[in-house]
Amino acid sequence: MRKILTILILGMLLVACKKDPKPPSAVSLVAPAKNNECNPIESVSGNKSVVAFRWQAGANAESYELRVTNLITNTTQTKTTSALSETLTLDQGAPFSWTVISKNSEVAETAVSETWFFYNPGSLTTFAPFPAEILQPLPGGRVFMDTDNEVTLEWSGADLDGDIEGYDLYFSLETPPQTLLASPTAGTTSQKVSVSGNTFYYWRVITKDREGNTSDSGILSFKVL
């Protein structure tokens, strides 16, 4: 009986000491560089080339899902790997976004890296601007208005040609937002907007360059508390 009791106590101690698995953390992206042209490692037939992706390890991550989206066709390619690098065959002369999702089989939670933009070089001599990067409010975020019942919208723009001319900022209570709130020049990347509490708002930024090219940030939303 004493032996059985000892085994039971040891089992209980082992269960009590076992730590819950930790969710993975987001990786830091390395290459292709943000808002730049990539350096393909191989050209293939059909105006395509092989692009290499690299990132740093995420804590507690067992595997990674690489997601690369063609910003012209809006098609996404994915690959899952346990390594810190992967390759994909991509269309030449097109802009792309890429991100990496960290995973661990012991937990349901995942972690998503930043999203970076890049161009896979081709025969283009002029480039459309990259979609505006939203800085605040974060997509889907919850924010407080200031003492003037306003919230500041902030973004950043990038263009390989360096010829951004300005932005069209759309903002409304409906989605997609149809109200053109402002058209600031390239040097202005923030705008204060009047808001009400306990309300959802939708906005988007169209980036324009001097060649007439444009890009769309996509529809963003936030709730004012």
Automatic annotation (TrEMBL):
<dbReference type="InterPro" id="IPR036116">
    <property type="entry name" value="FN3_sf"/>
</dbReference>
<dbReference type="InterPro" id="IPR013783">
    <property type="entry name" value="Ig-like_fold"/>
</dbReference>
<protein>
    <recommendedName>
        <fullName>Fibronectin type-III domain-containing protein</fullName>
    </recommendedName>
</protein>
